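User: Fold this, then the next.

Assistant: Folding the first:
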Amino acid sequence: MRIDLTGRTALVTGSTQGIGLAIAVGLARAGARVGINGRSADRVDAAIAAVRERVPQAEAVPVVADVTVEVEAEHAISELGRVDVLVNNLGVFGAEDPLEITDDEWRRYFEVNVLAAVRLTRLVLPAMTDQGWGRILNVASDSAIVIPAEMIHYGVSKTALLGVSRGFAKAAAGTGVTVNSVIAGPTHTGGVEDFVYQLVDRDLPWEEAQREFMRRHRPQSLIQRLIEPEEIANMVVYLSSPLASATTGGAVRVDGGYVDSILP
């Protein structure tokens, strides 16, 4: 199976680290021109260097913007000129006592995890429809289906993102544009390492801390380990390609078997 995205331009939000950076590398390796997005020019430049280290021929474009702000989201799209593949990866998460989550914090999670994706989809979908081809991917989470008690606000925001994906897939019906969610399971990133240490003994070495976290807090995982970002990226790159032309409106799982259901 050969995935070729030569001639396509992709925007990956929140792509200076973790899953977003891995997705950017995967898309660049497939030949796409990739917009690397973050709020800090220094971090964006560092991410571009990391992409080019892995893919020397990569065409990586800096997109310094806070896409949770309308005018900056518009700037991000204009910087690239066109967007054939939009990957809404930007997200925030963290453990918090459900009775201590304030209204402002609930709003922040929806602004970042849901409305930023909605806004960017509105901005790119008309041009994709006009050209008869496009891919919109929303990076969701197993927490959308198995709501964690320690971060209800995060889980609910990701549940909303599944609905957003399905709805926009219907809006794009018959146009050649596909819209899907990717349900990422517990994944090994720097942010997740911090999260793990919120829930287990900080004095444990990382490998022991990971095992303890999976045993106590994610025992449903069938692979019994954290997923590597590249494993999420592989699915995103496939769904971004012409090979996935009949997959739309879906919630595609890369969760290590964590969600104990047949669909999705």
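Now the next one, as you asked:
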Amino acid sequence: MSRRSGGWSVATDGVLFLDELGEFPSPLLDLLRQPLEEGVIRVARARETVSFPARFLLVAAMNPCPCGERVGVGSCVCSPAQLARYSRRLS
């Protein structure tokens, strides 16, 4: 979902699928909370504010760790710090 695509408004009354959720910046994921709760996106530019409908189901997928190999024993190469940072992206 790019900032220019208007993904939230395109997903109205549908599904917004975010693949590789752990790769999205935390501030961007935090911005999803309000539209999910209120069903509205508000865009403010200069002296105008415009509201768009944003009623959607958020579906997301992510790897269990940054390297994506945490499924098998001994195959993950991530450090404990990397694992902690990766999991903190989801508030």
